[in-house]
Predict the structure.
Amino acid sequence: MSLKSDKKNRMRSKQILLVDAVSWTSDYPEGHALRSVPKWFSNALKGAEGVDLHACHIEDDLDKAIDRDIHGVIISGSPSSAMANEAANQNLLLFLRSCLMHRIPVLGVCYGHQMIARFLRGQVQTHPEGLQLMNTEIELTPTGRACLLFKGMRTKFKAISGHADYVPELPPNCHRMAGSELTQIQAFKFQNLLYGVQFHPEFTEEIIKYLWTPRVAQWKEQVSFDLAHRIDTMKDPSPTHTIIQNFVKYLAI
């Protein structure tokens, strides 16, 4: 393919940047098929036509990564805390400022949702009920039902949650789009540009088992439920991949 035809194809396709916020430990040996955050999201985008997904790591030069003609950004979840003042978090906060300045739509997932809240001068706290690892019933608000991010989703649907921190209240000038029994802010938006979802629309039960089975020993004394049993009985949710596809199709412009 010539450079000219490649440029034309890029102009026709949606260019989506995935900020991979996961730093893998030795508990997850290299080479495993699921040891790839970009693959989780590319699988979630299967069936979506005309999408080029580009990935960079959260510790990379993120501003340089949006030099190309990016239509939208997705920020992944992470085992790291959005409350920490570590370098990666500071890097991401500066990047979010650039996205807002250049009017680039952003979807933050779990950790990404919390970092967007922090960027907007909201709060992130440890969840009072501890680890939220479960199939969660999500309920859309009227604002959520009207938002194209949730086009085709029922007012109530199941999703996979996997977080120990949360956003306790809406950041200034934001709109709540979804909640659940234990986490009232499951989704919010700001200026039709920044979107956060606390749950994991990209997750499957296979991903949960892969991520959490090595962490049972570390976490089992910190939770009030049988963690191993919870992991083994997690179910694939309703088609939450639709949410990621909707972001790319309708909101990344």
